[in-house]
Design a protein that fits this description.
The protein is mainly beta. The protein contains two helices and 13 strands, in the order βββββββαββββββα. The chain is globular, with a radius of gyration of 17 Å.
Length: 197
């Protein structure tokens, strides 16, 4: 395994879809376009770029900046004694990345990879993470969205028990989504890798 972090921290996101269904592969922002102040057309300076990712049983909403690249699905190399949601490892830019099925991890649905599946490479958020990246199985291309304070609504109650790896249920305009707890997911990956070793 390589010990160096890939040079390009803002790697292109190959094949990501923007809101119009177009495909873009340039930069961390998925799609080009925007106004002269750096905000996308029709967005304010307080809006952020987000990505809706379809997994089995749910749609996840993530900040665009957490995504390093979108890859075509290929079966990962299995990891012995790993939980079912830890599908295996893939090679990416010199790293062996653990690949997870979020639907399985959270208990939402079985999630086998196959035709039409994609793999999203995510940047790890936790300083304690063993690797700076991990991979997630998705059902099709991520969709670029603009997240504004006026369009995002919290749908979960304070006393509601969330599925594993989920912080909250939200609605972005007309789309219901889950906010994943990426630090908790990274901790679960680390524990599973340690137990499988």
């Amino acid at each position: 395994m390589s010990n160096s972090i890939p040079d390009n921290e803002t790697a292109p996101v190959d094949g990501a879809q923007d809101e119009t269904g177009g495909v873009s592969g340039s930069g961390d922002d998925f799609a080009g376009g925007g106004s002269s102040d750096g905000a996308p057309d029709g967005a304010t300076a307080n809006d952020i770029r987000g990505v809706l990712i379809q997994v089995a049983g749910a749609r996840l909403l993530l900040p665009n900046a957490t995504i390093a690249e979108v890859l075509s699905y290929a079966p990962p190399a299995p990891i012995a004694n790993a939980p079912r949601w830890l599908l295996g490892q893939i090679r990416w830019r010199g790293w062996n990345l653990p690949m997870i099925a979020f639907g399985e991890l959270s208990g939402l649905a079985r999630e086998p990879g196959g035709l039409g599946s994609k793999v999203v490479v995510l940047k790890a958020l936790s300083a304690a993470s063993r690797l700076p990246y991990f991979a997630m199985l998705t059902q099709g291309f991520p969709r670029l969205v603009t997240v504004s304070a006026s369009g995002l609504y919290l749908q979960s109650r304070e006393d509601e028990v969330m599925p594993l790896g989920v912080q909250a249920r939200v609605r972005l305009n007309d789309d219901a989504a889950l906010l994943p707890d990426l630090e908790a997911v990274e901790a679960m990956i680390g524990e599973a890798l340690a137990q499988a070793a």
